[in-house]
Amino acid sequence: QVQLVESGGGLVQAGGSLRLSCAASVSGSSFSLSGMGWYRQAPGKQRELVASITSGSITNYADSVKGRFTISRDNAKNTVYLQMNSLKPEDTSVYYCNAVIKLVPGIQYNMYWGQGTQVTVSS
Questions:
Q1: Is the pLDDT of residue 17 over 90?
Q2: Quick check: helix, strand or coil at residue 75?
Q3: Which H/E stretch holds residue 32?
Q4: Which residues pair with 67 in a beta bridge?
Q5: Please, are residues 20 and 6 in contact by the beta-carbon 8 Å criterion?
Q6: Residue 95: C-alpha distances to residues 29, 39, 91, 103 (Å)
């Protein structure tokens, strides 16, 4: 079973910071971890990519968060982080961790999702 365990969400005032963490774990088999990322979905809105990072640490950001958010990963811990600075009320959303994982033995990579963590930015 694949588990993406998220932490770090909460309530913060505008201009503040939060750091989200997401750790991938698999029970019963070994696994190969490829790209990881963060998405968010606010009520009535489409889920959107916030940031992604490849296994080689190449990053990509949504225009709305460039310069404010930083994605990073610790491959030894199978963990991806999202440092969120200068938070705005518009950042309020449920944030979902995403990871591309191949179970071993296996022939394909599949995409997995965390349960989501609420980030609320007050004004």
A1: yes
A2: helix
A3: strand 30-41
A4: none
A5: yes
A6: 27, 6, 10, 25
Under 8 Å between Cβ of 40 and 96: yes
Question: Residues, the chain, total?
Answer: 123
Mean predicted confidence (pLDDT) in 2-31 = 95
Cα-Cα end-to-end distance for the chain: 40
pLDDT digits (tens, 9 = 90+) for 45-63: 999 999 999 999 999 999 9
DSSP state for residue 84 in the 8-state scheme: E
CA–CA separation, 44 vs 73, rounded Å?
Answer: 30
78: which residues sit within 8 A by CB, 6+ positions away? 23, 24, 25, 33
C-alpha span between 88 and 65 (Å, rounded)? 10
Please tell me the distance from the alpha carbon of residue 6 to that of residue 68, in angstroms, as a whole number. 20
Report the distance separating Cα 100 and Cα 27, nearest Å. Answer: 16
Q: pLDDT at residue 68 above 90?
A: yes
Residues 109 and 56: beta-carbon distance below 8 Å = no
**Burial class of residue 30 (count of CB atoms within 10 Å of its CB; 0-12, 13-18, 19+):** exposed
